[in-house]
Amino acid sequence: MIVINISGRNIEANNFENDIKSEKDTAIVLQKPTTANDDYKFRFGGYGEIVASWKDYGLNRWNGQTTGSTRDHHATIALPRFIMAFDYKFSKRWALSAEVEFEGGGTGTEYEIEVGSGSENGEYETETETGGEVALEQFHLTYLAHPSFNVRMGHMIVPVGITNTHHEPIYFFGTRRPEGETTILPSTWHETGIEFFGKFGKGLAKFDYEAMIIAGANPNGFDKYNWIKKGKQNYFEADNFTRPAYVGRLNWHGVDGLRVGTSLYYCGDAGRNADKLNTYKGFGNISLLIWSADAQYINRWVEARANIITGRVSHADDISWVNRIYSKDSPYNRTPNVAKRALTYSCELGLNVKNIFNCSKNFPNIIPFAHYEYYNPQEKGEKSTSAMDDRCQVSLWTMGLNWRPLPNLVVKADYTTRQIGTRKIFGTSNAGYNSENEFSIGVAYIGWFIKHNGEKVRCVDYERLNQQVNELRREVEILKAKNAKK
What we know:
This protein has helices at residues 16-28, 162-165, 179-184, 316-324, 353-356, 462-485; strands at residues 42-55, 74-89, 94-103, 109-113, 124-128, 133-146, 149-157, 190-200, 207-214, 245-252, 258-267, 288-298, 302-313, 341-351, 366-380, 394-406, 409-420, 436-452, 457-459. It is mostly beta strands. InterPro entries: Porin_dom_sf (IPR023614).
């Protein structure tokens, strides 16, 4: 709910943190309808980011030089994404939700295959417009049957990995989304299908789950640099659903502030989802399996996250051979060799200086953080003779600050250094490649801005909300002090 009445509430001191967390989460998270008790008829919100970076490396690590990226200093500024979100409840149980993403400040490229009658020898046609991309990220109808079992149908987020599951900018410290996940998987990953979801249990055995049947991946998009990322469909007006994918996710919430989750993605024969139906005929079933595990812990003093994603694709060498000779007019980059296995893992830790040192209410809400990740879209080839490029292997550190003047607004600054061709956590690479370093600053926001409950429209006053939270905090500290004297 957007408008929150905190003043006048009677709460116990030992329940204070849970109450504050509940109020802040309700205010800023773009939570899709999950219960029939959600108190709104219509709501509108969204999130957005702007990032400026100063870099000391060139544009192409794979330029043929033995040192990897060249030493070229340059700067960039970008609008990575601007999201508009809408929810409308037809009734307590039926809800319609949509998210429209503007990425890179513009629109993108539309691809079509000109197909003759009974022919699969058509060529690609493109219609290109300026800017980046406009995408319908979510558009689905939800039926809220019971807290333990609900149904969602339409275009939805695929909850594989921590970033796809929680992709809003308050859920990662860096100025950009974690590189490992966004290198090997689509981000944000959204597909069309049906989902079953709910929550069950209580106390230490509290869980929620998601189970989906969606359009499967397309091996035409598998490549050397991004593994299966560009195998996400949506290039055309209709997605191939010949071999759907099955996705499951389970989260444990048994300890306050802690969430531990795991997810699984499986497509039994992705080759049948190719643009042209017989592209991979004769190679057998091209199976794709992706597994992830992640955790997040948040309290007044600490925010910590960890994540691992790996997977395997069968017939990787056959895919590489076909994609290498595929149409040059296609939207795919056709770069061999596709790896059998990719891997990324990461962790990050942030400390809330204001709460750790019990600073005054006027002290800024600053969180210094450190983030580490390793990723390699070519972790292992199908055979020992399959050529894997060690320039795809990255060990990365990011350190910086987040300033949160409001619960739904964050200003970020960070420094990132990448070591290429190594899995060392510390130290430099022995492969002889130049490191890639950059300093970035960014601003991001998120929230539901307008809520209509069928009677009147209310807008959010986040500054007033923050004042009320701080006032409540002081009242609880006074109450704790009085109890201690007794």
